[in-house]
Design a protein that fits this description.
By secondary structure, this protein is an all-beta fold. The chain contains one helix and 71 strands. The N and C termini lie far apart (151 Å).
């Protein structure tokens, strides 16, 4: 078993199991407890795991590559590293200041890129005093802690967990641990300081990265968080398994060696060296299972690479070699197709035994009358065997042959196939025909070896009291047009048949002739059809006889048909079957009748037939309801019949009322339409009880109230009055309703415009003035209006003045001017004429002049 540790994790033999967030919660819990019970100050005074991704809490000193990296972290995902490529100063690195305190526990992770690196330092000190802890990785591959301990040897590119415990601030000493092991007890402070307030990390070796992580200082008095121990080994309970196991079979169970109690482990197949066969297996929980069926004979050792994860960040990988063990397998017999043969028949067998055992073959027959077990023999060896089957003398028919192969090591395989011993000439096994009918009996040639047929002879006997031979026909047979046939049926009860090749020699099989008979016997009688002799190419051959039975005519049968219910004005369809043993499909006579021709006349019932399944279409008369009984009778050619009856119930439904179509209408402006006549009707409702409703698409032109209905019963009328002085087109919809269903008709009413004369809107008032009064004017703008034209188009003139010696009247620009003559008094009637498009209106007023 090869043990290989993952490159990224095998170096991390120890790491802190408490993640940053868990560590924070742990600190917080201790703070609360301490404050409650001891009223003490905060315990964790300094902690850094570089998970923030920056050095905002640190000050960068000197030169070199100083960064957070994710490539080689000891905890979480990130760590700090420094590469002093310029090698300019021992102070190249980072430092952090904090409030001075006396830690009792200090820890950190460190990893050096080379055992020859010079001076990778971790320094903890008090600025005003000096160094307290002075640690560095020396170029001789040793860790040194002041004053002089350098007993611990380190490896390049491996993480180490360093701890300083049990600080005694009186004696100025502490204990030094690496990866949990005590290295030196009672290390002295470098300087006799009373606290620490400064930490520094730096590297003096050019071109070598030094990594730091998980820096922790606490005055809790404890040893701090316990580091997580990585898994160190994986075991598999079984590395061998038998061939031919089903997919998903458990091979073995994994377990992990890990120093940490209570760790739980997750196992997975991982890529890497020797992971070639990972896909052939799967891991479920801690179980390794097969992912394919393995064969020992084609198998080789299988290599998989497995990782265990302690779910605390620690992983370990190991390679396992798995072997398939041999299981003695049953012989494999290739399937044997069904066989047919005339006489003795050989079958080449294909048998394979994976272990190449000595095989014993045997066989059995399900019908020993056709083939006895003793008539099945074998020859051959290994994978090549021949089975010989010999049917019993002149026996034809089928039997199931079962082949058994024993490897003499406890495994037996078998397979079965159908063997048919066939005749050269055969008649149908059972033939039937109705009394008084005729039929053709096929004579079949079987020729599996495709021999050339030069001649055939046969004598066939039958019962002449049942059958009368009428000859033989080659029409539609394989010998048609190529063979000469002669028959002799003069000897009652026997037919002599001779076939001879005329043109091409036939070398296949099929129907070679049809023997024609008339049926003269009664129902139920039977006759054997027997080959007396038969030969092919002047050699006797195996034949198969037949039996003819005069058929007993059976009545046709029609299936039950359930009653049907449909709504008025609807059609329906249904299916039924009608069959007869002696009749071909759909050949029966079918008669369909209805007892209610008012509702459902016979002509409204039709059918189609497909393979004795009849589809019936039923269409009752529209607007009729009630019940009709349908009778269906099917009759065969000999007059036997069967009848089925069922009811078709048509339920009444409310029909929609009907209204005549009304054509488009025209009227002139300010003129009602003539009376518009139309009819309404309803099958179930008296016409006087029907409701008429009108609607208008333009109620400004035709309001609903301007549509007036008249009439009674089915004869109705309406008159439509357009709004005065309005013209245009409105679509009118007239709806008739029986309070459930409706019918509507729509038509357009076009109102053509008419030119109206001007109108007097505000008559001119009479005028009274004193003699010798000054002229006065009257504005005629609001006196007249024309609904058809702009009022400005109305012309106004003086039509008459009864007393021009009293006052002169004139109109200009819609202004009427009255000019009184001097020293005159009396009255004058003045008439103003307003005209638009030739239409006029007159307005007369009186002028009175008082002396």
């Amino acid at each position: 078993m090869n043990k290989i540790q993952n490159v990224d994790h095998c170096l991390l033999n120890h790491k802190l199991s408490i993640k940053p967030i868990n560590y924070f919660l742990w600190i917080l819990a201790w703070v609360i407890l301490f404050l409650v019970f001891c009223h003490a100050s905060v315990l964790a005074d300094f902690y850094e795991n570089f998970e923030s991704g920056n050095l905002s809490n640190w000050t960068i000193d000197g030169t070199g590559v100083i960064e957070i990296t994710t490539a080689t972290s000891a905890e979480g995902s990130q760590s700090f590293h420094h590469n002093d490529s310029n090698s300019s100063s021992h102070s190249d690195g980072i430092h952090a200041n904090f409030t001075g305190f006396q830690p009792n526990y200090v820890s950190f992770y460190v990893r050096s890129g080379s055992t020859t690196a010079s001076d990778a330092y971790f320094v903890l000190k008090e600025n005003s005093c000096g160094w307290v802890v002075y640690f560095y990785a020396k170029s001789n591959g040793k860790f040194l802690v002041y004053p002089s301990d350098e007993s611990f040897s380190y490896n390049a590119n491996q993480w180490y967990f360093v701890e300083f415990q049990n600080f005694d601030w009186t004696t100025r000493t502490f204990d030094y641990y690496v990866d949990g092991s005590l290295i030196y007890a009672g290390c002295s402070f470098r300087d006799s300081c009373s606290s620490v307030d400064f930490i520094e990390l730096y590297n003096y070796s050019p071109g070598v990265n030094t990594y730091w992580d998980e820096i922790n200082l606490t005055e809790s008095g404890s040893a701090g968080p316990t580091p997580n121990n990585y898994p160190t080994a994986i075991s598999l309970s079984n590395t061998q398994f038998a061939e031919n196991l089903t997919i998903g079979t458990i091979i073995g169970t994994f377990s992990t060696t890990d120093a940490d109690p209570g760790d739980t482990f997750t196992y997975s197949l991982v890529s890497g060296i020797d992971s070639t066969d990972n896909t052939r297996f799967v891991i479920s929980g801690s179980d390794l299972k097969t992912n394919e069926v393995f064969d020992y004979e084609t198998a080789s050792p299988y290599s998989i690479r497995v990782q265990t994860d302690d779910n605390n960040g620690g992983t370990y990988e190991e390679i396992f070699i798995l072997n398939v063990t041999n299981v003695n397998e049953s012989p494999v017999i290739q399937p044997i197709a069904d066989q047919s043969a005339i006489g003795e028949h050989e079958i080449q067998l294909d048998i394979f035994d994976p272990e190449y055992d000595n095989l014993t073959l045997s066989a059995s027959s399900s019908n020993t009358n056709i083939v006895s077990d003793n008539n099945i023999t074998f020859s051959g060896a290994g994978a090549f065997w021949t089975m010989t089957i010999t049917p019993s003398d002149n026996q034809t028919g089928s039997t199931t042959i079962t082949l058994n192969v024993d490897d003499n090591n406890g495994n037996v395989s078998n397979t079965s196939f159908l063997f048919q011993s066939i005749p050269v000439l055969e008649l149908p096994e059972n033939t039937q025909a109705l009394p008084g009918g005729s039929f053709s009996l096929p004579l079949t040639l079987n020729n599996p070896e495709n021999l050339g047929i030069y001649g055939l002879e046969a004598i066939i006997s039958y019962d002449p009291t049942l059958l009368n031979s009428t000859g033989i026909s080659l029409t539609g047979t394989v010998l048609e047009n190529n063979y000469i046939v002669e028959t002799n049926n003069q000897n009652s009860g026997r037919i002599i048949i001779c076939f001879a090749a005329n043109n091409n020699v036939y070398s296949s099989d099929g129907i070679i002739g049809y023997l024609n008979f008339d049926v003269i016997g009664g129902e139920g009688q039977s006759s054997s059809l027997t080959f007396v002799t038969a030969s092919q190419n002047e050699m006797n051959v195996i034949t198969k006889d037949g039996v003819f039975t005069v058929q007993i005519n059976q009545s046709p049968s029609i299936s039950n048909i359930a009653n049907v219910t449909i709504d008025e004005d609807n059609s329906t369809s249904l299916t039924f079957t009608a069959s007869d043993l002696e009749s071909s499909p759909c050949s029966l006579s079918v008669n369909i009748s209805s007892d209610n021709s008012v509702l459902l006349p016979n002509g409204n019932i039709s059918y189609t037939c497909d393979n004795d399944t009849y589809s019936l279409n039923i269409s009752p008369i529209s607007n009729k309801n009630g019940t009709a009984t349908i009778s269906i009778t099917v009759t065969d050619s000999l007059g036997l019949f069967d009848t089925e009856t069922f009811d078709v119930q048509v339920t009444s439904i409310n029909d929609s009322p009907q209204i005549d179509t009304i054509s488009n209408k025209t009227t002139t402006e300010d003129t009602p339409t003539n009376e518009i006549s139309f009819n309404i009707s309803d099958i179930e409702t008296n016409a006087n009880n029907l409701l008429l409703i009108a609607s208008s698409s333009d109620t400004n032109l035709i309001p609903i109230e301007n549509i007036v209905f008249s009439g009674t019963g089915e004869s109705r009328a309406l008159v439509i009055t357009p709004v005065e002085n309005m013209n245009g087109t409105s679509t009118l919809t007239i709806t008739v309703s029986d309070n459930d269903l409706t019918d509507s008709t729509s038509f357009d009413l076009t109102v053509t415009p008419v030119d109206d004369p001007p109108e007097i809107i505000s008559p001119i008032a009479n005028v009274s003035v004193n003699e010798d009064s000054a002229n006065n004017t009257i504005d005629l703008t609001g006196v007249f209006s024309d609904v058809d034209n702009d009022n400005a188009a109305i012309t106004k003139t003086i039509q008459s003045n009864s007393n021009p010696g009293l006052v002169n009247a004139s109109i200009a620009d819609n202004i009427l001017t009255l000019d009184y003559l001097a020293d005159q008094s009396g009255t004058a009637d003045i008439t103003v004429l307003a005209e638009s498009n030739g239409k006029q209106v007159l307005d007369t007023f009186t002028v009175t002049v008082t002396a």
